[in-house]
Amino acid sequence: MTATPTTPAADDSGSPREDRQPAGADFALPSMDLAALRWFDPAGRAVQRLHASEQCDVIVVGWEAGQQSSYHDHGVSESVVIVVEGRITAESEGATRVLGPAEVLVTPRGAHHRMRNDGPERAVTFHVYAPPMSGGVSAPYRDHTTPSD
User: Fold this and answer.
1) Domain boundaries in the chain?
2) What is the per-residue pLDDT across 71-129, written as a single tens digit (0 to 9) for each?
3) H/E/C letters for each residue in 49-113?
4) Phi and psi for 100 in degrees, rounded to 5?
5) Among candidates 75, 103, 94, which has minimal Cα distance to 149?
6) What's the pTM value of the predicted model, to 2 decimals?
7) CATH homologous superfamily for 34-134?
């Protein structure tokens, strides 16, 4: 019969896992009410930076009906996007997917994609980019020409 350990296994640091801080424990993002951060701009997507660090960028985007991003990539950054409200259509490398509230889209680094709000109502998305993007909120993407159909 094989014994079952009763204490957490040590990793290669020699410290039991329960005695170590979890990865990212030094990343403290205060609790935020995303509904209170809703902001929209009829001239274009409303991008707000919530957090910036050496590890990641966190933004929230307000989309009026009909607004869209250009076809772009994020360089070396990967992204995770969560739809907070409304519906967003995402296109990447010829595939199209419609996402609703609480649905998640993961975009690997270098993947060309675009997002748009095809619905009649506003949409809000929450984005995390790691490593952080260069260029800041005013120019968060390296833009690419829209691919021919």
Assistant:
1) 34-134
2) 888 889 999 999 999 999 999 988 999 999 999 999 998 899 999 999 999 999 999 99
3) EEEECCCCEEEEEEECCCCECCCEECCCCEEEEEEEECCEEEEECCEEEEECCCCEEEECCCCCE
4) -115, -175
5) 94
6) 0.71
7) Jelly Rolls (2.60.120.10)
